[in-house]
Design goal:
MetI-like fold, 15 helices, about 0% strand, globular
Length: about 325
């Protein structure tokens, strides 16, 4: 087991290094250049005394962008290994500080979404499997396909139009209301909760469909297994057969699905956060990437790659927990 973990960790480190290089090269080739924009603003403020081209070259030297892509990446990698990810050009502060200021809003929103998603999708998937080819199964399947097919920007826009514009029962955007600071502690919690209803609903609708279909498919496969027929032949109650024997084995494929949740927790929901203007990491990173903020974009994407590798290793460990056959092998 230890040899396997060491190999997986070393392979994960190699993937992160190569992936970070690809991201760095792509960002360096983007037309959005924050340093050029900054140089034009500084040159305009000098009232013609300094040409923006000269200011641009000076800024490139100052921020280490006067080298080729490979040399620049090696310099960034050397600093990143020591924990120095630089300062965000857009926010004018260390990228780690910007990250720590906004990440927990994304985590909070995604944790609530996960709870809602699990409470809805797994029971629906089990119900559809138990009622295969019945009206209930068809209704759940149609609902799941609708959730899978609709994009996040459409769902978010419809929810805003219905509940914020027409019914006016939920706030249109933001994380807090106008009078947030004057509220009590419980009032502030309630205000944040009300503002998170539509973003959480948007994310949950996006995720529920695929998990319902996945649960239904695996539950059907398990329910048709020989040991399930044996359990029924022994006269066990149907609830015991489904909940104790079938559901545990359904969890094994679900590990693959849940292994990808860790990057989404800390990666934020870029489109949803942008639609509802939630100041999470997804919204902030989207703004930074639009402006060509290389230090912030590099930290954000590298962080997601590390989380992805960690989640895959955890998935392998979780397989051994839920499936004794993996431990034997």
């Amino acid at each position: 087991m230890w040899k396997f973990l060491v190999r997986r960790i070393l392979l994960g480190i190699l993937i992160v290094i190569l992936g970070a290089f690809v991201v760095y090269a792509v960002i360096r080739c983007l037309p959005a250049d924050y340093l050029q924009k900054m140089a034009r603003q500084l040159a305009a403020g000098s009232q013609g005394r300094i040409k923006w081209e000269d200011m641009y070259e000076s800024l490139k030297v100052q921020y280490g962008m006067n080298t080729d892509i490979f040399t620049g990446y090696l310099k960034w990698l050397g600093n990143a290994i020591t924990g120095n990810f630089g300062d965000s050009w857009m926010y004018m502060k260390p990228v780690t500080k910007v990250f720590s200021e906004v990440i927990w809003w994304s985590v909070l929103m995604n944790v609530i979404t996960l709870i809602v998603e699990v409470l809805i999708s797994i029971p629906l998937g089990i119900l559809a499997a138990r009622k295969q080819y019945h009206l209930t199964d068809y209704a759940v399947t149609v609902f799941a396909l609708m959730c899978i097919s609709l994009p996040s920007f459409y769902i978010g826009t419809v929810l805003k139009y219905v509940f914020a514009v027409k019914l006016q029962i939920l706030p249109l955007y933001g994380l807090t209301g106008r009078f947030f600071e004057s509220l009590s502690t419980w009032g502030k919690i309630g205000d944040i909760a009300v503002h998170l209803i539509m973003p959480v609903a948007t994310l949950a609708i996006l995720s529920v469909g695929s998990l319902v279909r996945f649960t239904r498919t695996n539950m059907l496969e398990v329910l048709n297994s020989d040991y399930i027929r044996t359990a029924r032949a022994k006269g066990l109650n149907e609830k015991v057969v489904v909940n104790k024997h079938a559901f545990r084995n359904t969890l094994i494929p679900l590990v693959t699905v849940f292994s990808g949740l860790l990057p989404s927790f800390f990666g934020g929901a870029m489109i949803t956060e942008t639609i509802f203007q939630i100041p999470g990491i997804g919204y902030r990173s989207f703004q930074a990437m639009l402006q060509g903020d290389i230090p912030f974009a590099m930290f954000y994407t590298t962080f997601l790659m590390v989380l992805t590798q960690v989640s895959l290793i955890l998935a392998d460990i979780m397989y051994a927990v839920v499936d004794p056959r993996v431990r034997v092998n």
